[in-house]
Amino acid sequence: DIRDQTKKLKLELTRFMMNYSFALDEIGTKVKILKEEFHLIHDYNPIEHVNSRLKTPESIFKKIQRKNLSFDLDVIKNNIQDIAGIRITCSFVSDIYRIQEMISKQSDIQVIDIKDYIKTPKSSGYQSLHLILSVPVFLSDREESVFVEMQIRTIAMDFWASLEHKIYYKYKKEIPKHLTDELLEAAKTAALLDMKMESLNDEINILKAADQEPISTSISA
Ligand code: 0O2
Hints:
Blueprint: H1 2-42, E1 47-54, H2 57-66, H3 73-79, E2 84-90, H4 93-104, E3 110-116, E4 129-138, E5 143-154, H5 155-170, H6 177-212
Parallel strand pairs: 2-5
Antiparallel strand pairs: 1-2, 3-4, 4-5
Helix pairs in contact: 5-6
Bound molecules: ligand 0O2.
């Protein structure tokens, strides 16, 4: 009857969403291990902060409609790859690619897709590195591969994206062109700031390395 069917559907949906939550837990642990071990070995922490989120049912529903998909869990699973999302904010652009490499090398993770919005920013000015990962989730009776979208960005990219998102969110109508132009300009300024901070860091590292070199005691004649 209808009550049994509703109960079954509810259970199916809960299990469906739980897998994404487990996948986020797993990837979150992986990132935490990388962060702590990297800090221990290199005495440097490339990761500033990490956030993760599950897409809300409303947002999943909107995307199903936008992509003209049928309301079928298998179709949703295969076509909506950002139900689980983790965002890693790091210090320098080079850290982004370092983290990408560390994650990609892990044998149980498959990199399904890479969108490099740093090399090719979006027309809005948005920059970040997006990876679609397939993560195995070990359940009581089976193993499931689950997609997780990993966004890796610098503090400057995150600053821009967070504020731009807020500006759009607050203003529901179409944004006047001069504002989108200025937002694009601001994104370019953020990218310049990233370049400047990275080159300052490189210079300091050279000075630090020189400081650590053993002082030669032999005096040549
Ligand atoms: P939320 O709230 O972060 O989840 P797809 O439709 O996913 O197959 P799409 O939309 O081209 O393909 O995916 P894309 O652009 O690779 O990634 C979308 C996500 O990137 C967005 O998620 C944002 O988090 C971020 N993003 C992309 N473009 C912009 C931008 O111009 N400004 C800001 N602030 N963020 C951006 P959601 O689902 O839109 O939102």
